[in-house]
């Protein structure tokens, strides 16, 4: 029992696009919200997002074509109803962002300047130069920062709280203080940074998913990991993602012999789906991105990338950037409906920590800000539509997550890196499983979570999207989602719901 606790209508863990949009919609409707987040709003994947948000906007484009592209990239595993829902909602969602002040780039005639990215059949990416995510975060923060109904809690969560009688999730503990609410929303992002190297902020290690798993939530499609094909990795600098939009606007990949090798691998060449480009890069010698076609535009169109390249000593004369694939986006997560509802009473999951079936086995570029933002809005709408459960503060169970030492996190990162690479095999995955099962921290939620991911990869004896197995490189005819729940074996199901 707690003597002191904080209560609000909604607790949102995470201050990326999903969490902040859920907060924005909730406070607009009069709810009191606590936003619990780690570090800084700059330490979110959203803040890092360069490319933009996809929405079929021009007269030549349609939601149907956006759906077709999404399903093609998803490699048989998209839920068509969910894809239709998000793609049809996309233009309305972008309109909402414009209304709240996101300054998407425009042409001089005041029309929006849409760009193209890998596997999109049309130019449909709304962007703010190459710092779209930063603009979205700063716009949302400007609305929420001093809002009287928002309680900002700048601390990592210690765990989830549940009602000892009903099992309902009733809040979180952060820095030793319980925060109770009728609705607990996880918007904790993906788990790319559990790997030893990734494009993600350092805190995106999957603690939210790990806690949800320990609380009995269903996790799905964990084995699908998207590698971003074009990342510059240089000693002494953090990995620098070179946005797909550069290839969309003319840059192309070459190998040691200066051959444009993507012609060999896919009809869409440099704009093929990310898994195809990542595997191709892995097979070529000295792969580089040739940015010569962007010589006159890169400085103004992609200023963040341009300045980061300058900082690393690149000049416009050296128009070839060495690139390699790096873990970038985790497709699986807590199984949730588009409004964030999970199988655990009182617990919602939105954004990259959730899996709805929208992306399938491989995400189409610029579809994740879209999904995360719409889920944030939908979650708030859902919460508003139901009667709030009164939350007592007696008989509370705590499900805690102890911080791991840096050395143990590094060890975990190495296991993930070696077992779940661009190309895996049964033996490599089994080595990872054995390493985790024999470690003294085996019972820790993050260990259990990574074990679930490895088990999901082990049981998917085929290659599809972001899961490529050298020992079974065929794609099966029937595409099925993987599902794992604490205390149960991995299941394969046709649909999540
Ligand atoms: C470099 C980069 C570029 C990208 N470019 C694009 C793009 O152009 N278009 C696109 O659609 N997608 C892009 N993506 C993917 C996209 O940015 C993410 O999928 C999306 O932003 C996820 O949003 P989110 O709100 O779910 O999570 P995030 O934005 O990652 O936010 C997660 C939040 O959870 C908090 N958190 C995590 N764990 C805890 C904890 N234990 N306790 C408290 N708080 C916690 C974090 O501090 C953070 O506030 C990119 C990703 C990266 C890394």
Report on the structure:
- With 497 residues, this protein is an alpha+beta fold.
- It folds into three domains: 6-224 and 328-399, FAD/NAD(P)-binding domain, CATH 3.50.50.60; 230-324, Flavocytochrome C3, Chain A, domain 1 (Alpha-Beta Complex), CATH 3.90.700; 404-493, Methane Monooxygenase Hydroxylase, Chain G, domain 1, CATH 1.20.58.100.
- It is built from 14 helices and 21 strands.
- It has helices at 17-28, 45-48, 63-73, 80-100, 132-144, 207-214, 244-248, 274-283, 298-301, 303-311, 368-385, 406-419, 426-437, 445-459; strands spanning 6-13, 33-37, 53-54, 125-126, 150-154, 157-163, 169-174, 177-186, 219-220, 225-232, 240-241, 252-254, 288-290, 320-322, 324-330, 333-335, 347-349, 354-355, 396-400, 481-484, 491-493.
- Strands 1, 2, 5, 6, 7, 8, 17 and 19 form an eight-stranded mixed β-sheet that branches. Strands 18-16-9-20-21 form a five-stranded mixed β-sheet, covered by helices on one side. A three-stranded antiparallel β-sheet has the order 11-10-15.
- The chain is globular.
- Bound molecules: flavin-adenine dinucleotide.
- Residues 13-19, 36-39, 43-46, 48-53, 132-133, 156-157, 187-189, 199-200, 203-204, 207-208, 241, 329, 351-352, 366-369, 372 line the site of flavin-adenine dinucleotide (FAD).
Helix content: 25-40%
Basic shape: globular
Q: What summary fits the major beta sheet?
A: 8 strands, mixed
Strand content: 15-25%
Total strands: the figure is 21
The structural domain count equals: 3
State mean pLDDT (0 to 100 scale): 95
- Briefly note the structural class of the backbone: alpha+beta
The first-to-last residue Cα distance is: 36 Å
The name of the CATH architecture of the largest domain is 3-Layer(bba) Sandwich
CATH class of the largest domain: Alpha Beta
* Small-molecule components bound: flavin-adenine dinucleotide
State the CATH topology of the largest domain: FAD/NAD(P)-binding domain
Write the CATH homologous superfamily of the largest domain. Answer: FAD/NAD(P)-binding domain
This entry's quaternary arrangement is: single chain
Low-confidence runs: none
